[in-house]
Amino acid sequence: MSSLEELAREISNCRLCPRLVEWREAVAADPPRRYRGERYWARPLPGFGDPAARVVVVGLAPAAHGGNRTGRIFTGDRSGDWLFAALHRTGFANQPRSEHPGDGLRLKEAYVTAVVRCAPPANKPTPKERDTCVQYLVRELRLLPQACVLVALGSFAWDGALHALRAAGVTIPRPKPRFGHGAEAQVGDYVLLGCFHPSQQNTFTGKLTEPMIDAVLARARELAHIREP
Question: In whole angstroms, how large is the CA radius of gyration of the chain?
């Protein structure tokens, strides 16, 4: 079985979805003024974190000018600012900011990944793109043998996590568990937890607050039997 490092190299060289390849490279070639002069990653993104993680945080996909720019998942945009600040407050991260690879950020007991690895137009991957990409999440989970809690950021990540578990041979409960903030479902050896996505649409409107995301991550620690920081 390949290592996480070997899988990361494979993911970063993927070109299986022509629409996503075209989009991720197009936005890198014509960035907004605030990022002019920066060299974009403009490739798919592997996950990031502790190989011994017991908690895996699953997002939708990289942001066009976030991870697609910086080269690290959930890094360089406001969703990532929210997520890593929450991971820091709940003891999963050594610092509250994730700005670029090499910034000193380390995760403990946590691994952050996504269902789709390329930035999609309008943040909306197609079902075919999800189905093509979900193999990488399946393989990451197999390479994270201590993982027992999956935190899904949004309904797309919730459904994507269930899709990955089914592809890995896990029996999905019937009726299919429904997404909601704070929702919990036992799926095989994993507990799936739901959390509203930390997008500006949710954080600016108050649909997701800091206490709300902290409560989900604290519950993940509890379910994973991780001692309080």
Answer: 16
